[in-house]
Request: fold
Amino acid sequence: MNLKKLMNRFPFNLAFPQYRNVMPSQLKKPAAAFELKDLDGHVHHLEDQPGQWLLLVFHRHLG
Amino acid sequence: MRQQEDQLKERNIQVKVVTFDDAAMAQAYIAETHLTWPLLLDQKLSLYSAYGMVRGSWWSIYGPKSVWKYISLMVRGQKPGTPGKDWRQLGGDVLVDPNRIVQLHHISEGPHDRPSVDALLEVVDKQTAFRRSP
Reply:
């Protein structure tokens, strides 16, 4: 088991909350390319609508 | 966030919502919430993984901060939803500038932890020297 998985397990995640989600921030780095479909089957890419800001909202769940 | 949709439009911010839930659940969500933004399906979690949005611990989902968040939602008349296929999957927010550089990368620690719209707008305003009208 690697360190990241260990730190996300109880009780380590309580004792060492600073180590949760240990992925380094992607701040100021190039955004990840993607190709994802919506419900209508339209494919969306990072490069859609150039010149605009893009806010990606990642849902926890839709319930 | 949808209550401040006009402010997002004013700043030329395109919003895309990403979910790992399936198409049926997404359809039901759109019908219920009248979501106008595109809802992208990422069932393989490829984009979630690219931004480090992992599964949270039991504590992060049902700890005191989350319970408080749910209580405050219920006080305001909102019902917490039924968890989807993975109640431990965390979400977050990523704001990308027109040059496709990440200007905000927020991985939620639990349901209580989302940046406010004002915080998002502040990032954009700082970058673009946008002046809000009085």
Q: What stands out?
A: The helical segments of chain A are 3-7, 12-15. Residues 25-63 of chain A form one domain. Chain A touches chain B at residues 8-10, 13-14, 17, 20-21, 23-32, 34, 36-39, 42, 44, 46-63 (CB under 8 Å). The radius of gyration of chain A is 17 Å.
